[in-house]
Amino acid sequence: MATPLSFQGISTGLQTDLLIDAILQQEAQPLQRMQDRQTRNNQRLAALQTLKTNMTSLSSSLATLGGTSFGARSVSSTDINNTYVSASASKAAVGSYDLLVSQVATKGRISPTLVGGVPSNLAVADPLTTPVFSGTSASFAVQGTDGVIKTLTLEGTNNTLYGLRDAINALGTADPNVVGSTGLGVTATVVNTGSGANPYQLVLTAKDTGTGTTGGVVTFADVTPGGAVNTLGIPVGTVDSLTAPTSLSGGLSSAVADAAKDALFTVNGIQLTRESNTVTDAVDGVTFTLKQGGQTTPTTFTVALDKAAITSAMQDAISKFNALVKTYKDASVSGGALANDPSVRSMIAQVRSAFSGSPEGLPATAAFTSTADLGIKTNRDGSLSLDVTAFQSALDTDPDAAQRVFAFTGESTNGVVSFYSGGSKTVTGAVGFNITSYVSGGAIAGTFTVAGTDYLLAGSSGAIAGTVGTPLEGLILSISGTGTGTLNLTRGVGQSVQDAVSGLTASTTGNIPQILTSINDQNATLTRQIGEGEARLDRRREVLVAQFAKLEATVGQLQAAGQSLSGIR
Q1: Are residues 140 and 1 located together in one domain of the fold?
Q2: Cα–Cα distance between 248 and 158 in angstroms, integer?
Q3: For residue 392, is it within any domain?
């Protein structure tokens, strides 16, 4: 409302300002009620947003718990300095592994040939001005250990060692306009040795370790039509095409000492070879990082269940649940933002019911069938607590069974089908399967049977996904061959909570977003109505000021007339 002009009754002696304020205050009561309602709406908005945040945090914590935390493993090593090899593990079988590194994988490389300590090629005095070829242009071909061959042409504008380096590195990105295009598997660097007549030296290095398809050799050749024109001592080579080469002969190749090597090592006495020093496929769930060869005494790694990490993840989920309950209770006390709100009470009950319920699809022989079996207790105030001793005892007994209480899991009777993930609409229990067609890296097809009904599914590249609108919707499986069997699907309570939270917080269809939208719409209407009401009160004040001013004038005239009449006597 506009700031009023202050004045008092000169003729009447009335407290005009106070009278006007009293009248407007009475007439502003409907407006005040709208403002109070908007304030309560804002408080409810804030409380609901906090509840939504709490629910999302709980869902994320449970997703981590069910997805990766139960797979946490600790790894101890007899080599405390990890001199030759280190290891990490996730979802690996517990046990001990002896590893001995004979040779680490190296990268193929071309560097200057030294004669008496002086480079005889690939070196210049100044990388910015010393030309690398004579004539108008020069063409070069490069092949890495991956077998990919690329060509480049230098012109007068980049006829320097830096220009050659940059042109080689520019070939490292695949051409998006060419189907199946692959970038060059070689990088070029210029090293300044700081001594000699030609201190700037070009070095070509394969991007990946291992012998690849070329026996570990990197090749660099001058393929200028008519013969070599370079001044770097790069021999002539031949390619079958300057634009799309598939073969390269001649040129300069990695010396024996600079040819790439594969890693050689043993795991529990079995000799293995890998092109990379990061080995993920020797032992399921264990990653070995090879650091140095020539090891004479094996390093023993002991993989164990990381009960401390799993317990911490479980306590985090319980803490997130308790935070949600506390937020709701604090906002639901008498006079609170969510007091006597049945919709919110129903949502909290839904989440609580999902958390305290039983997993769907568990077989009768399951080692654990409820969160209580894992040491989770409900306290008198509705919060949860964890009996750590009971929980870790359950982990010792059967960690996979403990995980099934929380996560969406699947167990297959045939190794050609492996469970990857399930969704809120995916059926639980026994699902029969018959993978009838499988092509490595190609098409896959099979029949899946749910409650006597067959569903034909197709996939590719080792994966099949359930069809939308069927009981298999949301299911994703990894396929490695043909065969038949049964897939037992279980939806743990953690997944049930995630499904419930997802339904309550979904951006357009969720209960909470819909309530928030409704409140925001109400506030928008109230803001408009409040603005209109304030404008009416401003106009009303102007009318009252005018009326009292007229009253003052009238009374003043009457007083003046009275004084005139009294003077006649």
Answers
A1: no
A2: 24
A3: no
